[in-house]
Specification:
The protein has 88 residues and is mainly alpha-helical. The chain has a domain at 33-88. Helices cover 86% and strands 0% of the residues. The protein contains three helices and no strands. The radius of gyration is 18 Å and the shape is elongated. 14% of the residues are buried.
C-alpha cells in the first residue's frame, strides 16, 4: 500500500478508470454480439438497425483509448463483410 499522498491518489484514479474501461469494453462486446446474433438469424432489418450503433460503439472505444485504431478497423471490416453477405 502506498504511503505517499500522490501515490494513494493514483491507486484510486487507476481503479476508477479500470472500472470505466471495463464497462465500455463490455458494452462494446454486447453490441457486437447482438449484431452478430441478428446476422446469424438472418434478420436483415434488425442487423441493419444495429450496424450503425455497433460501428459507433467501436469508434467510441478508439476515441477513449480502449481499442487500437487498427484493431477497430479490423472489427469494422469483419462486421461490414457480415452485413454485405446478409444483403447478398
Amino acid at each position: 500500500m502506498p504511503n505517499i499522498k500522490s501515490a494513494k491518489k493514483r491507486v484510486l484514479v487507476t481503479e476508477k478508470k479500470t472500472e470505466q474501461n471495463k464497462a465500455i469494453k463490455s458494452a462494446l462486446k454486447t453490441a457486437i454480439k447482438k449484431f452478430l446474433a441478428a446476422v446469424n438469424a438472418g434478420d436483415k432489418e434488425t442487423a441493419a438497425a444495429l450496424y450503425p450503433a455497433t460501428i459507433s460503439a467501436i469508434d467510441s472505444a478508439v476515441t477513449k483509448g480502449i481499442l487500437h485504431k487498427n484493431n477497430a478497423d479490423n472489427k469494422k471490416a469483419k462486421l461490414a463483410k457480415k452485413m454485405a453477405s446478409l444483403a447478398a
